[in-house]
């Protein structure tokens, strides 16, 4: 069970750290498996409550608009997280269609399933890595993947799996963040984290920002008629203090500068990170909200 949990954590930790923090105090309880499970569950709930409305729901709407799903189509949402894309696409395909959400993290799937049931949406949910899709060949009309590809252990293998389960003529639409150079707040957070903490997980989130690299991955996995376009969205986060706390909280057991320190000493270092980020945070405040521009590449291709 521990090996499975570690794999799930590797796949999701970078985005959790960037957008949800790592619940420092919870992870100081000794590193037991149950502590990690409880933490991941809480992070999934926080992701749905805080990040989805402000950031991922608007992106999902755009992704679905590009996909133009039709009634009766079979749709697969890969790296579905808490299911915002799957939940929004379900009404488009109707009762004659099928929507499946897949994510490697069971806590994300649990939140997704509950949210779909509350909205009376018939969606199937699977826990599986993208590199080993549990579906037969030629099974879907449309595959969606919102901000997941950069986290896959083997990006090419994941895309080859998407190609395998897609029907001939079917389409894939996916999004990845543009590079750190397009996100100055996170560029600064990356540099501050490295300086004070000895490491940063920020860069992994923006690691597939080169559109040429993305195009090559799609070509090498067999896709045709590839189109990639830049897209930007302004996100507004309602609680600046919570936003900054989530952004900079880290796991002391995996952070070089915090290892072997007591809680008080760790807090001194984290306070220095907060202090270095405070000025930039004030610059991006508008009407008591954190306002940030996010930039992505949205790719569309066919089998």
Question: What is the gist of this entry?
Answer:
It is built from 10 helices and 8 strands. It has 303 residues and is of the alpha/beta class.
Write structural notes for this entry.
- Helix 3 (84-93) links the parallel strand 1 and strand 2.
- Helix 2 (33-67) runs parallel beside helix 3 and helix 6 packs antiparallel against helix 10 (263-283).
- The chain contains 10 helices and 8 strands.
- Helices cover 48% and strands 21% of the residues.
- With 303 residues, the chain is of the alpha/beta class.
- The model is unreliable at 1-38 (pLDDT under 50).
- It has a single domain (2-182, 204-234, 294-302), classed as Vaccinia Virus protein VP39 (Rossmann fold), CATH 3.40.50.150.
């Amino acid at each position: 069970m521990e090996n499975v949990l570690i794999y799930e954590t590797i796949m999701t930790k970078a985005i959790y750290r960037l957008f949800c923090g790592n619940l420092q105090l919870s992870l100081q309880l000794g590193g037991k498996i149950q502590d990690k499970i409880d933490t991941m569950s809480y992070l999934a709930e926080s992701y749905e409550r805080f990040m989805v409305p402000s950031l991922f729901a608007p992106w999902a709407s755009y992704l679905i608009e590009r996909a133009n799903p039709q009634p009766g189509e079979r749709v697969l949402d890969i790296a579905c997280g808490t299911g915002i894309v799957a939940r929004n696409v379900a009404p488009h395909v109707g009762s004659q269609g099928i929507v499946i959400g897949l994510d490697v993290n069971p806590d994300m799937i649990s939140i997704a399933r509950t949210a779909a049931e509350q909205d009376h949406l018939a969606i199937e949910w699977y826990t599986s890595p993208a590199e080993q899709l549990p579906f037969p060949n030629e099974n879907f009309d449309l595959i969606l993947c919102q901000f997941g590809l950069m986290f896959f252990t083997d990006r090419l293998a994941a895309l080859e799996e998407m190609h395998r389960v897609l029907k001939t003529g079917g389409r894939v639409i996916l999004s990845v963040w543009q590079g750190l150079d397009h996100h100055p707040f996170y560029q600064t957070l990356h540099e501050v984290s490295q300086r004070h903490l000895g490491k940063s997980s920020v860069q992994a989130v923006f690691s597939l920002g080169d559109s040429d690299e993305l195009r090559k991955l799609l070509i090498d996995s067999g896709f045709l008629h590839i189109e990639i376009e830049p897209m930007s969205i302004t996100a507004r986060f309602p609680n600046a203090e919570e936003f900054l706390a989530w952004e900079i909280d880290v796991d002391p057991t995996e952070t070089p500068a915090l290892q072997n320190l007591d809680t008080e000493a760790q807090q001194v270092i984290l306070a220095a990170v907060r202090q270095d980020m405070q000025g930039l945070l004030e610059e991006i405040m508008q009407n008591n909200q954190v306002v940030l521009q996010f930039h992505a590449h949205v790719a569309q291709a066919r089998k």
